[in-house]
């Protein structure tokens, strides 16, 4: 297993119009980059308030330990 840092770009619309961007990141252990993306989405969705947030993965970086 390898360690990956996955960065999400989350869009919050202020007053329903003005986009404010947040960059949340999570460290995941996975066999490859695609599995890291899937596991990161699962971890992000583990909190019910996060499920409906507008977001996308903007970076996946393998961590060299």
3D structure, described in words:
The chain is α+β, with helices and mostly antiparallel strands and 65 residues long. It has one helix and three strands, in the order ββαβ. The chain has one helix spanning 33-45, and strands at 2-14, 18-30, 54-63. The model has no long low-confidence stretch (mean pLDDT 93).
Summarize the structure.
The chain is an alpha+beta fold.
Pick out its properties.
3-stranded antiparallel beta sheet; 65 residues; alpha+beta; elongated; 3 strands
Taken in chain order, the helices and strands follow as: EEHE
Number of contiguous helices: 1
> What best-fitting shape do the alpha-carbon axes yield?
elongated
Quick one: biggest sheet? 3 strands, antiparallel
Distance separating the two termini: 12 Å
Architecture blueprint of SSEs:
Layout lengths: L1 E13 L3 E13 L2 H13 L8 E10 L2
Antiparallel strand pairs: 1-2, 1-3
């Amino acid at each position: 297993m390898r360690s990956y840092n996955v960065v999400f770009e989350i869009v919050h619309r202020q007053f329903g119009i003005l986009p404010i961007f947040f960059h949340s990141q999570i460290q995941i252990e996975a066999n490859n980059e695609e599995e890291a993306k899937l596991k990161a989405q699962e971890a992000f969705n583990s909190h019910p308030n996060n499920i409906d947030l507008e977001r996308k993965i903007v970076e996946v970086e393998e961590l060299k330990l």
